[in-house]
Amino acid sequence: MISVQNLPQPLNGNKNKTMNSRKIIISILISAVCIFSSQAQISTQSLKFGEVFEKISNYYVDTINEDKFVEEVIVQMLHDLDPHSSYLSKDEVKAMQEPLDGNFEGIGVSFNIMKDTIFIINTISGGPAERVGIRGGDRIVKIDSLTVAGTGITNTDVQKKLKGKKGSKVQVSIARRNVQGLLDFTITRDEIPIYSIDASYMVDDKTGYIKLSRFSMTSVDEFYNAISKLEKQGLQNLILDLSGNGGGYLRIAVELADQFIDGKNLLVYTEGAKNPRHNYYSTDRGEFQKGKLVVMIDESSASASEIVAGALQDLDRAVIVGRRSFGKGLVQQPFGLMDGSMIRLTIAKYYTPTGRLIQKPYDKGFDEYSKEITERFFSTQYADTAVFSFPDSLKYRTLNKNRVVYGGGGIMPDYFVSYDTSYFSGYYRDLISKGILNQFILNYGDKNRSKLKAAYPGFNEFRKSFTVSEEMLNSLIEYAEDEGVSYNENDFRKSEYMIRHLCKAYLARDIWETSEFFQIYNESDPIFKRAVQVMEEGNLYEKKLEALKP
Fold this sequence. Notes:
By secondary structure, the protein is an alpha+beta fold. It is built from 18 helices and 21 strands. Strands 3, 4, 5, 6, 7 and 8 form a six-stranded antiparallel β-sheet that branches. The chain has a six-stranded mixed β-sheet with strand order 10-11-12-15-16-21, with helices on both faces. Strands 1, 13, 14, 17 and 18 form a five-stranded antiparallel β-sheet that branches.
């Protein structure tokens, strides 16, 4: 593979610089193509590819943007291979890495831009912003003496201004309700954790709940902490919520599955044409090897989520509740390029312990593949489990109790939960998709924070006693009108319960944390309610895990 160090250095002048730039680009292209070669040496096809680009650079009738041209070629080349091989620019690599690494360096706030103003939702406990006295409801007017309110600033702009190296300082001027003038703070940036567990709490005296949003480097440590906290509250059974979890690191998925499995058992294996089979096993180090376990999944549960759900199902360790998972079972290996960009190339496929391929078919091309989830939504698959009919070739038997499970892509749950569309309406859609409901609650919480905290000193009081008043709903309707969403009586009545419910859930998040949001929200989530039912009622749990005769 040719590297930039092997290229001739420019002698002098702009012409030589241009020629060298072209050679570097050709080198990048050759390097990328070499990945696909079965030989260590550069293949004839790789050289041919570079030669074509050199002719374009030297002789094409118009001037081309060579950087853009190269990226477009790489993107299309990977796009034609499979749905998940991809190219990432240098900036995209950095943005992708932060939520998986589990931290970044900044001031430690979550924010929203509302009416051209940076509105702080809350501060991270113990973070730099909280330490200097910034709090939820504050509005950032200036950053390093530059006015940012009313300037059309974007989320990306805010992140660039507030993030920075640990130890560096940033000055912010804050507007705070009921305080005259601006408050100036100097914040010393620090390492900020990004948590992958959104919520953990006790559903009742015996059953705990953990919501995992991604499989990051910190997920297992977070899981230890959550389990330890719940055990002190009497944990015996657990609901693990992987709905909406798009995946993350393979190693973390294996380590998390290991928390529930006793002894050495195959958890997942990978295999590809140029990558021999590699097995991943459990150990004896699990934190929750006993007790009932229910796993929630849906159509957005993918990759690492499917590895965990598939392993626990194949080993008869858990009951899976929800809807068929996404079906992403292709293994990507990152290959860094010389300019800091990266390609993520599919090198193998994931298989569950019984040999089920997690990846759904993609032989009809990318467009059909990308529409598959939407087609599920409009088909009866979301409404009625009775429509599922699997050929014998897709039937597998679990490893301990010989139960029937199904292949064909994704993980099919043991208990199917249809998609609830009963409250959907055009009015509800606009309130959510345009961010109006969220913005209204941010405003409402800001104006009434002191009053709410006085009335509900703890979350349990709020959960039991707070109700969304008619006055609050009328204010929401007026706010939506001002934002261009006209009131529709029929739509509103159809969606009223969910609108009220989300108002309360968003308000809980605004006053407390994300965990409190899910404690409210889950009361209306059909998959969660079914998970609780399976855990508690009759023999639903035991019946599903009964051993069958061969």
